[in-house]
Amino acid sequence: MYGKDYFLQQDLIPKILSVLAAHKNDFILLNFHSSGVNARSCAFLQSIILKSPSNPVFCIKTPQPFLRNSKPTDGNSITPDTFRQLYIVSRLPLMVFLADETKGLTLSEILPNRTSICQYLQHVDLYHLERYVTENCYKTGGEHAIYDPLIMLKLVIVKFFRQLSYRDTLQTLTDQDCRYLGLPWTADGYIIPARSTLHHFVKCRLKEEGFERLMGIVGSLVCKASTDQAGIMDSTPVEASRYDKNAEFNVHYQCKMYKAHIFHLGDIPLFCQFSEGNESDSTYAIDLIKGVARMDPNIPEVFADAGYDAFQIHADIHHFLHAKPFIQCRDTAVVQEEGTEVRIDHWVNKMWKMGGSLTATLRQKLEFLYSNGRQQQVGMYLRNQNVADPQFSEVYAKREDCERTHNHIKSIMKLDVRRVRNESKRLYVLANFVVYQILLLGHLQNNISPVQQLAHYY
Questions:
Q1: N vs C: which end of the chain shows fewer Cβ within 10 Å?
Q2: In this structure, how many other beta carbons lie within 10 angstroms of the beta carbon of residue 423?
Q3: Is 81 exposed, middle or buried (0-12, 13-18, 19+ CB in 10 A)?
Q4: Segments forming the whole domain that contains residue 436
């Protein structure tokens, strides 16, 4: 591991790049001085990061008073906000250390333990996903060279996790990354697919249908591996550019946006639906419920906010997921007489010619009524249970977990559609969602806790 000190000046940029190319360093230490650093230097540093032939960890060493000055006097000085913006743009490992705090420390002491996402993927069982890609996304024959589907799938995960373009994803792969990914080796080096090949794999081979199917496969594996039992339904805004002519302005969030409707199993998202920004949450509830039901989960209870407060949704959760719905009631909610047990028995008895029996269990009666056109009545009964339950508020508090999960997804993945073509928005939202699912699945498979701890991967 090498460390080198540089003054960040424009005429040294080519020299820095040549050092990177010659040594393929794992670590580069850039020494900032307050007399020679301004906003233009930030752009130069970004150029170094994006053009570097390897994927080093850049340690920015800067004087303490200079970096901590949040209000620069000349308008061009680097501040902590500037460094954060640089990290967001580059999306490569970037650390900021204060010179007085790192004095006397070795590189191994100041570098935290970080793991390449390529190395982590070696420990994730992707057999079921690989089999689907092989059987459904490739055709025999043709002029295109067929790369190993497992390698292409891993490259897709790397691309969306590192939030890089197709070109930069492949150009920033180190020899170690290539070895971890299993890329073929020749005398001339590793054979890396072209950016157009990776783009074709995402847009033309997987497509939206492929990511939807992968989402179902991963969700089924999560249901088998996870010990969580609480299901949660909610939506989260997917921000769009304010110049997006196709996005709708949402008054509540005060921005142009779309929506991602997500069903969670505890802290892990299972299923996602993409919609316009002003679509009602209840409209997509049945799609979420049926999508999760195909995964055969063991969910005894499902939580949702007042946006899902409808008799039909209560009944659908009970029928498809065999779970008890805990949906926040509206302020005007009252006990519905048609949803009492007396009226349930009345209609079961009235429909005796269709198989209704008063000696059946209550659950069997509800299933019978649902299957014979009385879904609204079933929903009324289930909703009455929540309205009359004095401890409902305490039980419903479990739903708050999903807000943290939404924020975590957005902090790890690019769950927005800025600078994305209109016809590709749904594709890229689903792709980011599936990649996030796969990363959490790997933690479940390897018993890594907490399951959402992804910060030490790059």
A1: N
A2: 8
A3: exposed
A4: 114-225+420-458
Contact 368/360 with Cβ under 8 angstroms? Answer: yes
Spell out where 324-373 has E strands. 324-327
Element (H, E) at 441: helix 425-445
Whole-angstrom Cα distance, residue 128 to residue 135? 11
- State pTM to two decimals: 0.75
Whether residues 198 and 294 share a domain: the answer is: no
> How big is the chain, counted in residues?
458
Buried b or exposed e, range 240-253, using 16+ CB within 10 angstroms: beeebeebeebeee
pLDDT tens readout for residues 213-265: 999 999 999 999 888 778 999 999 999 999 999 999 999 999 999 999 999 99
Number of domains in the chain: 3
Helix axes 207-225, 425-445, angle to 10 degrees: 20
Residues 329 and 241 in one domain: yes
State how far the alpha carbon of 29 is from the alpha carbons of 16, 39, 54, 110, in Å. Answer: 11, 19, 15, 11
Q: How far apart are CA 65 and CA 100, in angstroms?
A: 10
